[in-house]
Design goal:
CATH topology of one domain: Leucine-rich repeat, LRR (right-handed beta-alpha superhelix)
Structural class: alpha/beta
Strand order of the largest sheet: 1-2-3-4-5-6-7-8-9-11
Radius of gyration: 37 Å
Helix content: 10-25%
Strand content: 5-15%
Shape: flat
CATH architecture of one domain: Alpha-Beta Horseshoe
Amino acid sequence: MAGTHLTFLVFLSWLTVCIITTNAYQTNSSVVDVKVMCMEREKQALLKLKDDLVDENDQLSSWGTGDDCCNWTGVRCNNRTGHVYALQLNHQEIFQFYDSVGEINYSMQFKGDISSPLLELKHLAYLDMSEVRATSIPQFIGSLKHLMHLNMSFCDLSGTIPHQLGNLTRLVFLDLSYNNFHKVESLSWLSRLPALKHLDLSSTNLSGTTDLFQAINSLPSLHNLYLSGCGLSSVISPPLFHSNYSPASLSDIDLSSNSLTSSIFPWLLNFNNSLVHLKLRYNEFLGKIPKALGAMINLESLDLSLNQFEDYLAKFHLGLEKIFRVCLDGTIPQVLCHLAHVQILDLSHDNISDDIPHCFSNFSAMSKNESTHESIFHFNNKRTPAYVFSEYVDSVRVVLKGMELEYGKTLEQLKSMDLSSNNLSGEIPDGIAKLEGLLSLNLSNNRLTGIIPPRIGLMRSLESLDLSTNQLSGGLPDGLRDMNFLSRLNVSYNNLSGKIPLSTQLQSFDNTSFLENPELCGKPLSNECAAEQAHDPSISQGSKDVDIQDEDGFISRGFYLSMGIGFATGFWAVCGTLLLYRPWRHAFFRLMNHIEDWLNVTKVLIIARLQRRLRN
């Protein structure tokens, strides 16, 4: 009884604590609700800023209504202090107006200069005024000490970039791209932004800038660098080649549409371990693509199009991003061996005279059965004029199962390799069986010799396998029976021999899948194997089933015999010992008695406890 009272008191104490905590939380929440109102000084600053902007479509109509400016369009406040910390005036984010053809109507953007009332927003951390048509960046913007995000792209800005931006030491994101600044002579102020991770100065004239790469190398946190169309040429002094002068975290570089030459590569090679995306299209590169690019072990996308490389013609379809074309010289470049993220490899119809590289087994993305959510890397080589390019596609056409199929939303699930219609020779590397995630493998119309890799049965995800029109010999591996998803198989026009393995999957294919292999026999071919011809034609279906089981090599008479011997040995090892050795027999039955007594006592106690609770 005392225990019951103690339990009741503990429960009451716990309930009291919960009630007090809940009341305190509600009290604090109400206090926060009171503090969330914006500051009057900042509210008036926003109204003055609105007066300085031309808002022809009245998109800031909410500004001035109500007492709380935190509820105005594009304004965000700190829930605890009420200070404005974010201001977003770019028209694409605030309002989505489209014209009759479904495109954004650019006449609906704001116009006007950035005025000094902005200085009253002393806690401003996020400022996005992209596409607000202004004249220049005011120097006072460098006084917004808390600013971490500044986007003034597509603002039609002119004049110079004020060096006062170097005072924004907390800045993480800076985008001043696609404006009309005067020629920039110095970017030394960038070196005072140690937290900067994203820098976009695309379409800014940097041709006269002498300290660009020095400034970039002084940014230890930089991840993304976009300098497309900046008039850059590869004039880099030797000290910049060393990695200890370069940001180690740089992962995304866009230097397209400049006048760069191969002298930029030593600087780029400082980022072998960090670079993921590299765009160098439309520059002045000549000769061969540097083999050193293959050392960039984490590289997922590479755009070298619209240059004058002499020895490649390839098309890289990088995820849902970019396609570019360069040209193969009849061999498979070793740089492909380092593309671990490649999911779609298409080198068909390329007149390649080479062996299949053993390093293809290193394609880790193809070895995984699950779909990827990263950028899909597609290498596709077609003899297409160098002026044909596609950008930002969200689908790709691939020959799969003998048909040209288009993959869109399911593109991330597609993993295929097509080396068909070349002059490939040598044997099929055994390591290709490691690519267990492949859905399609096409090596047809080549001059491959040797046997089909015995471990090919490990590629259980394969839906299409085409090895036709080669010079393959030997038998079909038994592992083909394990490919349950295989819906298209073609090994015709080879020198294969022996019996076609028996399985529901293989016997379901048409005989055309195995034609022109003179020494190949068994269903679905009409020529039976010699052993089958010796069988009695009146054999029963049950006997046929036994034969099929015998062919399996695992379920056999020996298997049943071993199972019987194992059961008998285990049974008598336990029961025989108890029968012959008295102390063990007595100990065993005492244990059984103890377990029975424990179960009975436990049952009685539980029933009694339940009855007592019901009476109470």
